Amino acid sequence: MKLYYFTDPMCSWCYGFSPVMKKLKESYPNIDLQIISGGFAPGSTQKVTKEYKDFLAYHWRSVSLRSGQYFDHSMKFVSDSFHYDTEPSSRALVVVQRFLPEKDFEFLSLMQKSFYVEGKDITNDGVLAELAEELGIEKKTFLEGFHSEEIKLKTAQGFQFSRQLGVKGFPTLLTLENGTVKVLTHGFQSFESLKEIIEERLTTMFIPESFSGQSCSDISCEC
Questions:
Q1: What does pTM read for this prediction?
Q2: For a FRET experiment, which of 54, 65, 104, 196 has its CA 20 to 30 Å from that of 19?
Q3: Domains (ranges, CATH) in the chain?
Q4: At what angle do helices 125-134 and 87-99 cross, to 10 degrees?
């Protein structure tokens, strides 16, 4: 079975969902999981003002309460030049998928930890290059790919693919059958709940719920 996981490195609910996805990968190693950064806020010029910081902190507390994931609320990444632009980190994921495709989930998790726990600015290409280097990609190789038109285009295609399938919030996990979208989860789910859905899917190859403009702001990051 092939699953499409639409996520974003700077989506807090996706960070909360990360341990669930890790268990999914470990429990179902034969599932073909394709990770796509769907574009939570690409190109955003949103600065982290006091009001926006309060907004983030509120949602981070909700995610932490539901998922158990730790957040560093000091938000050390905040600076006068920082914007909540999710395109660079999405593009970084595409670079890793190009050079080390088997480590894309590991890199996604590394970016999330760096941002939410360590307060690193993952909109910065230098920071992203250092993280990729931890997985074995040389900084020069990473940066050449990161700034290439090919990778920029492929990143934009991921955003477009997300919109084409009607994905409006992250995380979203779905399958495609003869062009028909079957959503397994839109928003946060516990592993136990997701496992039941996966087991039913593997047994019957049918999920009776299709994606139709759902909006679950309490459990997902909406576009």
A1: 0.90
A2: 54
A3: 2-222 (3.40.30.10)
A4: 30
